[in-house]
Amino acid sequence: DRVTPSRLPCQRHLFDIPREVAYFNCGYMSPLLRASVEAGDQALRRKAHPWHLSPPDFFRWMDEARGAFAEVLGSTADDVALVPSVSYGLAVAARNLPLARGQRVVMLEEGFPSVIYTWRERAREVGAEVVMVPRPADDDWTSAVLAAIDDRTALAALPVCHWTDGALLDLAAIGDRLREVGAALAVDATQSLGVMPFDLARVRPDFLAAAAYKWLLGPYSIGFLYVDPRWHGGRPIEHNWIAREGSEDFTALVRYRDQYQPGARRFDVGEPSNFALLPVAVVALRQLVGWGVPALYDTVSALARTVAERAEGFGLRAVPADRRAGHYLGLRAPGGLPEGLGGRLADAGVFVSVRGNALRVTPHVYNDEADLDRFFGALAGATGGRRGLA
User: Fold this and answer.
1) What is the rounded distance in angstroms from the CA atom of residue 283 to the CA atom of residue 39?
2) Which member of 120, 122, 218, 330 lies 3.0 to 4.6 Å from 281 by CB, making a disulfide possible if both were Cys?
């Protein structure tokens, strides 16, 4: 395998992963860093003594999380709202992006349910049409999406890569086409942001949401929403006190304000200070910045490439490398996957996911050669080594 200056050595020591566990399931849920667990423990203990919590503490972790996420994404902190989930972030987008009767929303077949449900419901409310782009036989989602965009398109709600198999979309080219017809772009970056570089200036999404608990290595129920500056004056879902101008002064909260905090802060979920979880997310985001996302992508892509090559011996095929996100694999067999394969692998200490008809394998920097050997040994044991797994 090639060696590059950006390749990271295995970082397993930063995680609490027993040697007998081969965890190839970051696309399902990442493990927390040891340092994140420690930060969470300290955060919970802080709440045990609330007399030590002062008004500035309500803003400290919000500011740090917002800034750290902005550094990972390549935006400014003013463009970031704190949300509990992608569905919340997309609900903000649905409340603000124009959509009228007869217009179209473009999405992917077998897309992630939260994306589909959000825009399907919004389209139903206004009498718009949902266009589900069928899975292309050649895995060229970009061409398929571009072909679906026309003058009736109001927006496209798309991922960076498909959540079942990592098939990649050229969002820069798609964004260009959407702007040509006056349409908007809402992105779910959950399965890529934090491990795969994202060119924000080139893609130019109107809204971009990402949950923290996967590739951002953060806790569950924390997420982030990027809002393009053109939408900063939009309508939030809820009207919480801390989003209003002057909320830092607790003695003046009954002097109600119509003005909001600057930038995208008006879109923050209620109780965004989250003393227990935001410190956990901040530690993880800082670690991502320390590693460098390009180095992470190079390292994890090398692991995924090795899995894809060795999986061919079992008759398993991934989306071709030039049409797949490097960090992400969905392995398919011509005759389909054996029933219960994921469970049998878990019994052998190997953790992956089955999504649709694909065995989803999503490694990270805590995986090493021993994990690879355990994975393929368990795969051989679970299938009797049969090529094609039929």
Assistant:
1) 7
2) 218
Using DSSP, state whether 107 is helix, strand or coil: strand
Sequence-separated (6 or more) residues with CB below 8 Å from residue 19: 370
How many angstroms separate the CA atoms of 218 and 16, rounded?
A: 14
pLDDT digit string (tens) for 328-385? 999 999 988 999 999 999 999 999 999 988 999 999 999 999 999 999 999 999 887 6
Q: For residue 337, give the H/E element and its range.
A: none
For 247, which DSSP code? Answer: T
Residue 244 has what DSSP assignment? B
Sign of CA dihedral 249, 250, 252, 256: positive
Cα atoms in the 13 Å half-sphere on the side-chain side of 219: 24
| Cβ-proximal residues to 216 (8 Å cutoff; 6+ apart), any chain | 30, 69, 72, 193, 194, 210, 224, 281, 284, 285, 288
47, two tokens? 């709440």
pLDDT in the model for residue 388: 52
